[in-house]
Design a protein that fits this description.
By secondary structure, the chain is mainly alpha-helical. The protein contains 11 helices and 5 strands. The strands form 2 sheets. Strands 2-1-3 form a 3-stranded parallel β-sheet, with helices on both faces. The longest helix is centred in the N-terminal third of the chain and has 18 residues.
Length: 285
């Protein structure tokens, strides 16, 4: 029971750290003062979290967790590893009910699976005394994606922003620009379509110089499809997979698009681009 209460404290610290300056009032107890007081019965307890190794999770491990331990006396063990290893170990722990991990990293795409198995605890069942005063958890804009059967099963703490990174020195080089325009008929600049992206990737693919035009997380792993293809390429082709099942809006016949010409074009583009990536791209996660 103590660990269950402590999890609330850890979650609250993670949630409030970037926002406390916005909600704190002059006479209100600070988050640190509140944590120090409410955590007294749980000093010396250890909570264990397994997570995919990402910049936000490492920030929690290296910055927030030590601060939390200093304030509360509650030890925090963070096991940051690959997604595959994290998923395997957390599922094995929950299936066997060994209780090794108190907190687990869960992808929003598959949280319903965890809910169906009864693996996760409704955060709202934690005692109200362990909720920071006046903090509204529903203020988190994307919380609805973590509510299953009216139970809050997780809180978001990171997102994967899709960005286009390029070398400014190459794009601004007069000789490169002239050669590119002569070959493709348009001025070299960041692409606006996948076809433009592909032409730029082809142009800068020079393996003998150690220069490649494309990179991807192309290792075969559970996240490959929905993180890389479905979230990055599919939407730009008008293909969506959120909220579907095999019988609901998956195929064209069911009002979906996963077997549509647009989906084929999207997957073809993904595969074609790999030829412009480094030779080890199929091991990248």
């Amino acid at each position: 029971m103590h660990k269950k209460l402590v999890l609330t404290l850890a979650i609250i610290l993670i949630l409030l750290t970037p926002t406390i300056s916005l909600i704190a009032q002059p006479k209100q107890v600070t988050i640190k003062e509140w944590l120090a007081e409410v955590s007294k019965p749980y000093r010396g307890i250890t909570i264990t979290w397994i997570t995919e190794s990402t910049p936000p999770s490492l920030f929690i491990r290296d910055v927030l967790a030590p601060e939390f331990e200093k304030i509360t006396g509650i030890k925090v063990k963070v096991e940051a590893t690959s997604w595959d290893e994290m998923y395997r170990k957390s599922i094995a722990d929950m299936e066997a009910k060994t209780g090794i991990y108190d907190l687990v990293y869960v992808e929003q795409d598959i949280i319903a699976f965890y809910a169906a198995k009864g693996y996760l605890t409704d955060i709202r069942t934690f005692p109200k005394k362990l909720w920071y005063p006046n903090y509204d958890i529903w203020d988190i804009f994307s919380l609805k994606y973590y509510v299953v059967n009216d139970k809050i099963l997780a809180v978001p703490f990171e997102t994967f922003i899709k960005v286009y990174a390029y070398r400014k020195d190459l794009f601004n080089d007069p000789k490169e620009r002239a050669t590119f325009k002569a070959k493709y008929g348009w001025d070299l600049r960041p692409p606006r379509t996948w076809e433009e992206y592909k032409q730029i990737a082809e142009f800068f693919y020079r393996p003998k110089q150690g220069l490649y035009g494309h990179v991807a997380q192309a290792a075969t792993h559970p996240c490959l499809f929905y993180e890389v293809v479905a979230e990055t390429i599919f939407p730009t082709f008008g293909v969506h997979y959120w909220g579907i099942t095999l019988k609901r809006r998956a195929s064209v016949e069911e009002g979906g698009s996963l077997n549509s010409p647009a989906a084929v074009a999207a997957l073809t583009m993904y595969i074609d681009l790999l030829k412009y990536a480094p030779p080890g791209v199929r091991t990248y996660t």
